[in-house]
Automatic annotation (TrEMBL):
This is Phosphoserine aminotransferase. The gene is serC. Pyridoxal 5'-phosphate binds at residues 75-76, 99, 147, 166, 189, 231-232. Catalyzes the reversible conversion of 3-phosphohydroxypyruvate to phosphoserine and of 3-hydroxy-2-oxo-4-phosphonooxybutanoate to phosphohydroxythreonine. Signal peptide: none annotated.
Length: 356
């Protein structure tokens, strides 16, 4: 039976990425060696790193003055690396979910943290819009896509202070204007590559402004100076990331992806709204994520939750269990998820409705 992979992360990757990476595990770039056993300073791997950085810049149309880094430590290490490098005295945070809250918590090690707004009281089921960012904040931190709660900030905000965004789960899903951001970061394991590599896009002229000493490995300038080769980079995830970037370009880049993502998520949200058994968890439609579609059983049918889960599993739907803090279901519709998988899930929901 065909499996439909709706996991939230690590999550589905393009077949192209899996196939080419598997090939490179046994024979990398015609060397007869595995990509796992060659020096990261070999000319073959240096070419991979260079091409990955160049394609990253090309696909996101990254302007001059920005650098793309591939680091270890996950998005969670960026929660502290960002304030370490950018916070002089004070930073503002928008609390839209548990990842956003974790980022905010780390900021407190480095100075004053202002939470400009929070949707925590409503279990993060909306994106706050009415807030003021203090003009003297060193930066404003947002989480564009809230993977757990299925909400997303889909436009590039302008708030008058440097904007920092965690884009772990929606990078490359839609066009963004990088010039509106000071720094963008994310773990690769949602929309780009296997776990183990973290991307950072950073505007260089914002660095070097803080007084504190920064440990070498946590200083962005170290990695800029050495082209993400100061220490051994996560070679296999970087190789896989390059494959995904090549695939993305073939798919029409982020514009092409965006169209497909609107279609996929739209199909699923339409069914959730139509089907009498289900309802979405996000309060207003404009905040609905294109990447993580969260839904629950309607109250009258609450007792059918377990049955639907089994019904869907029998039809090859994998990874649709909602995060424990939301419950119900979450279908992640990342770039690599084919439209066919969304159609299969919609049909499953329709069959289940007929059964009841
Ligand atoms: C998954 C996720 C993280 C955590 O990433 P790690 O690489 O596991 O540290 C942070 N932010 C968001 C939005 C995520 O989806």
């Amino acid at each position: 039976m065909k499996k439909h992979n709706f996991y939230a992360g690590p999550s589905i990757l393009p077949e192209f990425t899996i196939k080419n990476t598997a090939e490179a595990v046994t024979n990398f770039a015609g060397t007869g060696l595995s990509v796992m056993e060659v020096s990261h300073r070999s000319k073959e791997f240096v070419a991979v790193m260079d091409e990955a950085q160049a394609l990253f810049k090309e696909l996101l149309n990254i302007p001059e003055g920005y650098e793309v880094l591939f680091l270890g430590g996950g998005a969670s290490t960026q929660f502290c690396m960002v304030p370490f490098n950018l916070m002089k005295k004070k930073a503002a945070y928008l609390n839209t979910g548990s990842w956003a809250a974790k980022a905010q918590k780390e900021g407190k090690h480095f100075g004053e943290v202002v939470e400009v707004a929070s949707s925590k009281d409503a279990n993060y089921n909306y994106i706050p819009k009415d807030y003021k960012v203090p003009a003297d904040a060193d930066y404003f931190h947002i989480t564009t896509n809230n993977t757990i709660y299925g909400t997303e900030i889909k436009e590039d905000l302008e708030v008058g202070v440097p904007l920092v965004a965690d884009m772990s789960s929606d990078i490359f899903s839609r066009p963004i204007d990088v010039s509106k951001y000071a720094l963008i970061y994310g773990g690769a394991q949602k929309n780009l590559a296997p776990a183990g590599v973290t991307f950072v896009i950073v505007k260089k002229d914002l660095l070097g402004k803080v007084d504190r000493d920064i440990p070498t490995m946590l200083d962005y300038r170290t990695h800029i100076d050495k082209g993400s080769m100061f220490n051994t980079p996560p070679v296999l995830p970087v190789y896989a990331a390059l494959q995904t970037l090549i695939w993305l370009k073939e798919q029409g880049g982020v514009e092409g992806m965006h169209k497909k993502n609107i279609e996929k998520a739209g199909l699923l949200y339409d069914e959730i709204d139509r089907n009498k058994l289900f309802k979405g968890t996000v309060a207003s439609k404009e905040d609905r994520s294109l990447m993580n579609v969260c839904f629950v059983m309607n109250e009258e049918y609450a007792e059918l939750e377990k049955e639907f889960f089994e019904f869907a599993s029998e039809r090859g739907m994998i990874g649709i269990k909602g995060h424990r803090s939301v419950g119900g279901f979450r279908a992640s519709t990342y770039n690599a998820l084919p439209l066919e998988s969304v159609k299969a899930l919609v049909e499953t929901m329709q069959e289940f409705e007929k059964k009841h």
